[in-house]
Amino acid sequence: MSVNTISRIIGAVVALGASVLFILYRLTTPPPMPWAIGIIAVITIAAIIITPYITVIPYQWMRDKIHASSASDLVAASAGLLLGLILAAVLTIPLQYLPFGLGQITPFLGAVIFGYLGITAAVLRKSDIAHLFQSTPFRRRERDEERGEERRKKRDQDKEPASSTQQAPAFPAMPILLDTSTIIDGRIADISQTGFVIGTLVVPRFVLNELQRIADSADTMRRNRGRRGLEILNRLQKDATVPIEIVDNDVEGIADVDGKLVKMARDIHCLIITNDFNLNRVAELQGVKVLNINELANAIKPVLLPGEDIHIKIMQDGKELNQGVGYLDDGTMIVVENGRQFMGTTIEVTVTRVLQTVAGRMIFAHPKQAGSSIHNVTTSIVAPAAAPAPPQPPAKQRPA
Predict the structure, then answer these.
(1) Which residue of 24, 119, 264, 331 is surrounded by the most CB atoms within 10 Å?
(2) Residues 275 and 321 grouped into a single domain
(3) Is the confidence at residue 49, as pLDDT, over 80?
(4) How far is CA 107 from CA 80, 84, 101, 111, 161, in A?
(5) Are residues 84 and 38 in the same domain?
(6) Mean pLDDT, to the nearest integer, of 53-65?
(7) Do 208 and 270 share a domain, yes or no?
(8) 18 and 103 share a domain?
(9) Pick from 200, 177, 206: which is nearest to 274 by CA?
């Protein structure tokens, strides 16, 4: 039995009992029996119809709203409602003296209006209110730390010589937002374990929902990518040295995930880690700092200078005649002039020039002149020695 059916039954019983009591005990002259039965039936049927719309449906709507809202929204709405009701209570004193019965209606309307305005204003400006309340203790703590540092320096100067080295200040950690492409890429787990990332990795709920939609996709490739992203999140929560946090914050009025990330980064003043080129450009245009994993990977590739010697395996033909192409361990392409003859072998080459393109770094080289060292094993076929010619019979002599 559904909740709506139960509410209809309860509403019908309550309406039936209330109508019978009203007719029997409240009316001085009860109507005739047919009229009384008709009135009771109409009230009962009306209660059966409208009971779910005034009990169950509003409750479910309120429950869904509370479930979809974040904890910060609920706290801000409660504070705004409290402030609005306080203002309405203050205005009730002059409003209750209004003539023509308005003194009884306007206080209730004032409570409703000011309560709604308080909730709306507090939810929309919750970030500014949070910064306002956090700024004073933070500044007080900063002043206390500065005073303590000055006293400690003065005490150290009295005990130690003036040439003593000073400790480098620690950089404050800040939250860093992760987008879906970064989680699926997986390199952020290895980067976080190295200690180069300082701060808390933050995964918004809408990013996690998009990752779950990708993992539930009918396309096999998308489903595998989504499951890989969930595994990376699990690895970050268990193994990474950098803390990771999943927050329920949402951005109203923006549908796409990239737009929500940029707006959220602007509101809480944090960074975004991504490898999405479009998100990188959009965030930079709106003044949001972006850490691009692809740019980091290009920056840490080994630097080769013209004249250096390296060993490279020729994997395929180049675009030009007699060119061979090989690759370093990080994927950098090496174009070897006159390297086609060494196909499938590892040779020593000399770098001639290095080009930085949009697609990455490209290196040109040629085989080392002083005897290229080939590291594969080759077999040589030796021709067998020629067999000696058979002896010729002696020539016959003519008789004299």
Answers:
(1) 264
(2) no
(3) yes
(4) 18, 13, 11, 6, 73
(5) yes
(6) 82
(7) yes
(8) yes
(9) 177
Quick count: other Cβ atoms within 10 Å of Cβ 58? 11
Q: In terms of domains, do 19 and 80 share one?
A: yes
Does residue 390 lie in a domain region? no
CB atoms within 10 A of CB 314: 23
CB neighbourhood size of 229 (10 A): 25
In CATH, what number is assigned to the domain containing residue 356?
A: 2.40.50.140
Burial class (CB in 10 A: 0-12, 13-18, 19+), 85: middle
Contacts of 91 (CB under 8 A, 6+ apart): 107, 110, 114
- pTM tops 0.90, yes or no: no
How far is Cα 42 from Cα 293, in angstroms, rounded to an integer?
A: 70
pLDDT tens figures, 82-123: 988 898 888 888 887 888 777 788 888 888 898 888 888 888
- Which domain does 98 fall in, by range? 3-124
Is 168 inside a domain boundary? no
Distance CA 145, CA 304 (A): 47
Distance of alpha carbon 15 from alpha carbon 98, whole angstroms: 36
Mark whether 286 and 216 lie in a shared domain: yes
- Looking at the structure, do residues 362 and 262 belong to the same domain, yes or no? no
In this structure, what CATH number is given to the domain that contains residue 259?
Answer: 3.40.50.1010
Question: For residues 21, 22, 24 and 26, what is the CA-based torsion angle, rounded to 10 degrees?
Answer: 130
In the block, which residue shows the tokens 């090496």?
A: 334
How many domains, in total, are found in the chain?
3
pLDDT value of position 395: 47
Compute φ and ψ for 191, nearest 5 degrees: -65, -40
Q: Are residues 60 and 118 in the same domain?
A: yes
What's the CA gap between 14 and 71, in Å, rounded? 37
Residue 389 belongs to some domain of the structure: no
199 occurs within a structural domain: yes
Tens digits of residue pLDDT in 302-341: 778 888 889 899 999 888 888 999 988 777 889 999 888 8
> How far is 331 from 362, CA to CA, in rounded Å?
10
Q: Classify residue 322 by its DSSP letter.
A: T
